[in-house]
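Many introductory courses stop at the sequence. We go one step further.
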Amino acid sequence: MTTETLITGRPARTRGERAAHPGGASRARLRSILRHTLMLAVVVISLYPVLWMVVSSLRPDGSIFGNPSPIPTDIVWENYAYGWNALGAPFGQYIANSLLVVVGSIIGNLFSCSLAAYAFARLRFRFQRTAFVYMLATLMLPIHVVIVPQYILWAQVGLTDSFWPLIVPKFLATDAFFIFLMVQFIRGLPRELDEAARIDGAGHARIFFQIILPLMVPALATTTIFTFIWVWNDFFSQLIFLTSPDNYTVPIALRSFIDAQSSSSFGAMFAMSVVSIIPLILVFAFGQRFLIRGIATSGLK
C-alpha cells in the first residue's frame, strides 16, 4: 500500500495514468499565472498616473502633454528649483501652513471625537438615540451645504483668511465618521473594565483617560491617518477661507501654478506635486498596520 493510497483512500495511480492526466496541475498553474498577470496589470494601471506625474516633473513644459510615455528622456531638474521659489515665497512655507492646519485638525479630532464617542458608547442620557442618529445623518450632508453658513459665521467675527476656521471646528466633534469609528471600537471593549474601575471609586473622567483611552490606540491611529490625508488634500475649504498668499496651503499653492490668462508652469507644478505627496506616502507607510488594525477592530468592513 502506497502513501497516496493511505492519504486519499484511493488506489495509487501509475506513472502512465499520471502522464495521461496532467490537466489538473496544468490548469492550476495556468490559473495562477492568469491571476498574477491580472494583478500586475491592475497595479500598473493604478500606478501609471503617479509614475507619469513623476516623469513629467522632469520634462520641459512643451513636451509634457505630448509624450504619454512613463520613461524620461530629456531630464530637467530645474523644474524643482524653479517650482520651489516660483510663487513669491519658498514652497516650504506652504508646506508649513499645511502642517499647521493638519496638526491642529488631528489634535482636535482626537480630543473631541474620542470624548463624543465615549459619551455615546458608555453614558446613558436623554435623547441619546436621537442625537446618535442626527450625528450619523450629518455624514450624508455635502460640504457645500454647510460651508456657506460657516463662512458667514467666521466672517462676522472677522476670522476669515486665517487658519482658525479650518482648525477650531475639529475641536467641536464635527467629523461624524471618526465618532462612529470610535463608538464601534469602544463598544467592543468589555464593560467589566468600567465596572471594576467604578468599584474602586473612579468617575467617568478617570475611566476614560486611564482605561478607555489607552486601549483606543488603533482607533486613534486610524483617525490620525485619515485626518492627515483628508486635511492635507483638502482644497475646497482652504480655498474658501484662505485668500492671502502668505496663508496658502499646499493644494492652493499647486493651483497657483496654473494661470488661465498667462503661461502655466506645468513642469514646476508636477515637481511640487511630487514633493507634496512625500508626506502622505510616509504617513501611510508607517501607519498602515495601525490603520488596518483600527478598521478591523472597530467593525468597519
